[in-house]
Design a protein that fits this description.
Helix content is 4%, strand content 44%. By secondary structure, the protein is mostly beta strands.
């Protein structure tokens, strides 16, 4: 099953669409020249281990007031000082090399870092030293980033099991099992906790609510229906992170829909025909979504009416959407960071990420903290950037914005 899950995302990321026996190559949209009012200045950069494509889905960048935490797939977990240090040995506060590949985490819970491994272990590390506090063996790859609530840790494994563990010692409290299709996207959406309930997006195209206390299913609702003749065509993963806003649950399905759901019973308030698998953003006015073609859409929060679409980043392998102050941050697979205006979808600013080894590396995870960005790329570098106003001197001027830049 693991090979199939990985192969499916490889197929998607290569930009190939199955059309009977033919293949259509998706060409990334060219970028329109832009005067960018923002630039990024690197605070520091540290080299970890290189990552092959599609291994990063469950990885995370965590932080507390003084430190930033990151892991790579080769089992290295690191803690870094947030502020720039004069020496590399001072920037890296501690590192620990685990004997297993890491496929999810780290997630910070008070003074513990929670890691999931490819061999089915959940490991809690001390955030101060990196020492192993406890570890628990589960049934298969721990691909779901953990969430901690009610002194329990909730996570998912690749074989369809949902676990509740003691956050104190890792003891298994309960486990449920769900049937998983033969082929699905690599990785899973994190479990979402809210008011004594867990909400889970499944590879079957369903969203389920369960009791956090017992694991008992409370309701389930389908947002994507498998269609087509092949397993590839019938993939309906709910892989984007679920979001709760204004007492509604929002979910996005691959080959499915964007839906607003009733928290109590799973009934739909509305559904929009859009397919995607990247994490989306919800604020008080709108939902901002990247579809499977890397087109960014905004929908009215209350009724789902489409507000705008930005086609200027089509087929550029966008990552999960982020929020930067009052703008959206979309990072593409070619190393560019794009800031989008939330109101009308225009691309307001653009910069290029690079490291000491080149500038074509994909950013696999990002963390936004005020004017600071932390980026982890597939070359294995973690970078701390400061976002600052630019002098516009390094950007060409476009006489008139194109329709794509205007979000048409």
């Amino acid at each position: 099953m693991n090979f199939l899950r990985g192969a499916s995302l490889i197929f998607l990321a290569l930009g190939l669409t199955a059309c009977s026996s033919s293949k259509v190559v998706r060409v990334p949209a060219s970028l329109t020249p832009l005067d960018s009012p923002l630039q990024i200045e690197r605070n520091w950069q540290v080299q970890l281990n290189e990552m092959r494509a599609f291994e990063e889905k469950g990885l995370n960048i965590a932080q507390n007031k003084e430190m930033v935490f990151a892991a790579d797939v080769q089992g290295l977990v690191s803690a870094f000082a947030k502020e720039n240090q004069s020496r590399w040995t001072d920037q890296v506060l501690w590192q620990i090399q685990l004997s297993e590949k890491i496929v999810s985490g780290p997630v910070l819970d008070q003074n513990h870092l929670i890691i999931g491994t490819a061999k089915g272990k959940v490991i809690a590390l001390s955030s101060e030293s990196g020492d192993v506090v406890w570890q628990t063996q589960l049934s298969s790859e721990v691909v779901g980033r953990a969430v901690v609530a009610e002194q329990k840790l909730f996570t998912r494994t690749v074989d369809g099991r949902l676990y509740a563990l003691s956050a104190t010692n890792g003891r298994i409290i309960w486990v449920t099992e769900n049937q998983i299709p033969n082929l699905s996207l690599r990785g899973v959406a994190p479990v979402l906790y809210h008011q004594a309930r867990l909400y889970i997006g499944w590879e079957t195209g369903k969203v389920e609510a369960v009791s956090a206390d017992s694991g008992k299913s409370l309701w389930e609702s389908r947002i994507a229906i498998p269609r087509g003749r092949t397993d590839l065509e019938r993939m309906v993963d709910v892989q984007a992170s679920l979001v709760i806003k204004q007492d509604r649950l929002f979910a996005l399905g691959y080959h499915g829909k964007l839906v607003a759901m009733n928290l109590e019973n799973g009934n739909l308030y509305y559904a929009k025909d859009v397919s995607g698998y990247r994490d989306f953003v919800v604020d008080d006015q709108a939902i901002y979504v990247v579809d499977e073609d890397d087109i960014v859409h905004a929908y009215d929060l209350s009724n789902g009416t489409k507000l705008w679409s930005q086609v200027g980043l089509k087929y550029r392998s966008l990552r999960d959407l982020k929020v930067y102050k009052d703008m959206l941050l979309a990072i593409d697979g070619l190393g560019y960071l794009h800031w989008l205006n939330k109101t009308h979808g225009t691309i307001s600013a653009r910069v290029k990420h690079s490291n000491a080894y080149g500038d074509e590396d994909q950013v696999v995870q990002a963390l936004v903290e005020g004017d600071r960005l932390y980026l982890l790329d597939n070359a294995g570098t973690i970078n701390s950037y400061q976002v600052e106003p630019s002098d516009l001197s390094t950007f060409q001027t476009a006489a008139e914005p194109t329709a794509a830049e205007q979000g048409q």
